[in-house]
Design a protein that fits this description.
Chain lengths: 118, 265
């Protein structure tokens, strides 16, 4: 009990960070410009890079929202740790699912041969 | 265990006013209450990410196995509407973040304006989504058995535009420029097998997201109502803060949905 109540501020009042107007507008502008950029870049056929450019821009936008709009930069580091841990599990989920997909293809091909359409 | 129920005694010992209407009796201090709530909302938001990741996983696996279904399906999504909705959500995120600042600085007027603007943007988003969904339902670009195949869709078009259809059949060899244009914007790629799967994924992902927008509208109405009663201020802005965090997550998910669904070729 004692440790927790003295960790933050001793007076027990809420001391939250107030986001400056310039940061709010700056982040908003960045997000709008990045949206324009992702639409613009989608006009070019960059092959396998398409996906990486689009996801790179989306992730940059997501990080800006998390750090500034969602106050993570000024928040307890534990919340950032929680977000990072969640993303680790999301990628584990995607990765392990992708590893498994090829394992099923043989069965699907067999099914198609045994059950031809019309 | 029973010690925690001795709240008045411990409060008195710490010299706190336990009559603070904003402080629930089971918390020692406003700071402890705020941090607990913050931890709670972040936990909820992260379970939301994990929950959405099921759909993103379906997308990743299906696109990896059948990219042609995605390049075909994405042709029927209007990048213009998708981009406008992205901007609408970004603007609403700004107003939501600004509302938190207003509450923290006791700017009651601006707090109400920014909350109202956030709700307005949410309605604009849903309106645009309705236009898009309506178009897809009308065309038969739907999941599973509801999907109308390309041949039938074109036959329907021909029926709807009787004159144009006659023109097309009369001059199949010398296709008019207008018809060629219509085809160029409609569908350049051949229809792949199981094209309906794209619309299954599209409707599940955007539908679940739209449901979150609807919940956001309800939440922000409640926050606006409380703001109008003057409930919020520098020492009590938790509800505004947590609602804004939820709204930013809804924005975050759309930030990924937009390029993944609309910007494929």
């Amino acid at each position: 009990m004692g440790h927790d109540s003295h960790e933050h501020a001793d007076d027990g009042q809420v001391h939250a960070h107030v986001m400056p107007k310039s940061v709010l507008v700056g982040v908003w502008l960045l997000l709008v410009v990045m949206t324009g950029l992702t639409v613009f870049s989608a006009q070019f056929h960059l092959g396998f890079l398409d996906m990486w450019v689009a996801m790179g821009i989306a992730t940059l936008k997501a990080v800006a929202v998390l750090l500034f709009f969602m106050h993570l930069l000024y928040d307890k580091p534990f919340h950032t740790f929680m977000v990072a841990a969640t993303m680790v599990f999301v990628f584990l989920f995607f990765g392990l699912s992708l590893l498994d997909t090829n394992a099923q293809q043989g069965q699907i091909e067999n099914y198609k041969i045994l059950n031809p359409k019309n | 265990m029973t010690a925690t129920h001795d709240a008045p005694a411990s409060h008195a010992a710490h010299g706190h006013d336990h009559h603070d209407p904003n402080l629930a009796h089971h918390f020692d201090t406003p700071a402890q209450q705020f941090e607990s709530g913050k931890f709670g909302i972040w936990t909820f938001l992260l379970t939301e990410i994990l929950f959405f990741s099921g759909l993103f996983c379906a997308y990743v696996v299906y696109r990896y196995l059948h990219p042609e279904i995605f390049t075909y399906g994405a042709q029927f999504l209007d990048v213009k509407w998708g981009a406008i909705n992205t901007i609408v959500l970004i603007c609403s995120s700004l107003t939501a973040a600004w509302a938190v600042r207003n509450a923290q600085l006791n700017q009651q007027g601006w707090l109400k304006i920014n909350l109202a603007l956030t709700i307005l943007c949410a309605f604009a988003f849903m309106g645009i989504k309705a236009v898009e969904y309506n178009h897809k339902i009308h065309e038969g670009l739907l999941p599973g058995k509801l999907y109308v195949h390309e041949a039938e869709r074109e036959a329907r078009h021909a029926q709807e535009h009787g004159g144009a259809a006659k023109h097309e059949t009369a001059a199949t060899a010398v296709t008019s420029e207008a018809a060629a244009d219509a085809h160029a914007t409609e569908a350049r790629l051949p229809e792949p097998e199981n094209a309906a799967t794209f619309f299954g994924i599209y409707f599940c992902m955007t539908g679940l997201h739209a449901f979150h927008v609807l919940v956001g509208i309800a939440v922000f109405f409640w926050v606006l109502l409380r703001a109008m009663k003057g409930h919020f201020g520098p020492s009590n802005f938790a509800a505004v803060d947590y609602s804004a965090l939820y709204w930013h997550l809804v924005d975050l998910i759309w930030i990924y949905l937009f390029p993944l669904l609309y910007l494929i070729h």
